[in-house]
Amino acid sequence: MELKANTPFESPQQFEETMQKGVVTLAGILEKHNAKLLGTGMHPTLKFSETGVWPHRHRSIYTDYGRTFNLKQHGWLNIQSFHLNLPFSDEDDGIQLHNQLANLCPYLPAISAASPIYEGKEGTYVDNRLWFYKTNQAEVPSVAGDIIPEYTASFNLYKEEVIDKYSHDLASAGAGKTLLFKEWVNSRGVIFRFDRRAVEIRVMDEQECIKSDVAISCLIRAALRGMMEQQTELLSHDVLVSDFNSVISDGLNAMVLHPAGKTAREVCRYLCKLASDNATEQEKQYLWLIRKRIEHGNLSEVIREKVSRRAQKTDYMEAIRDVYSMLISCLADNQPFP
Known about the structure:
The chain has helices at residues 12-31, 59-68, 91-104, 109-112, 128-135, 155-172, 210-230, 237-250, 264-278, 281-284, 287-296, 299-311, 316-333; strands spanning 81-87, 117-118, 121-122, 190-193, 198-205. The protein has a single domain (42-333), classed as Creatine Kinase, Chain A, domain 2, CATH 3.30.590.20. The chain has a three-stranded antiparallel beta sheet, with helices on one face. It has a two-stranded antiparallel ribbon with strand order 2-3. The chain is mainly α.
């Protein structure tokens, strides 16, 4: 189930109130079918035998994907993420926004990871969703690249080096025309959406409630504001990719190469301070939740710890059900996980 905004939100509060109304509406519909909404980045017990590829509207897109990729795998069938779109005014603004976001996005999963468990077992990584996301299109590597986007100097260069490149590779692999020369096919963690005059960020796992998604958006907007005003030095692409891989593996405890600290937690503290210094009064009202995540663990780490503790007293699957039942309530009540 996907909730989308029809128009940009004018404030974090409008974001929270509008999307929570959507959650309540969907929950009311599902209740008639004895079903409930669940947040987080991956369903913890879903098996491939219990699901399938979307057969309804836009199914032609998935048919074309299926010509080239194995859709019967995680990263296609069990993946929930929070997409944030940030607008740009002109080409110069868009290029600066894209490049600074590339500089930021390797460290966001340290705060936003929410996929510790899948198929009823604890995953190897703190952010298992992103691990599968990295590998689900291995047949045509140029579609996702290194997930961390390459820096670019112009829209034309971006289209030539990214969109044209993966489109030609997809065509060579036998993909249908539906996927060729489409900006949304780009699976990097930050992409241009020229149809919206926006840059879209895709590296955040879906959280447990709307309030938590809003908090992450406030962190990104405010930190990015500071980075663009200060003209923060762009780290090398190799450093960003290395740090990203460390973060999705080890979360806040990951060892990184960023100059702000040796661990992802130290980098996130720096980013949160930068955000606090550049946030609007409304954005500041949400940053407490980011500080809590940094100091006490992202949602994935907290879930993993709570399930492990409960599993000492009961069956592991029962422990999963107990903890994720609490998460179902968090989404319904729009309350962050304890």
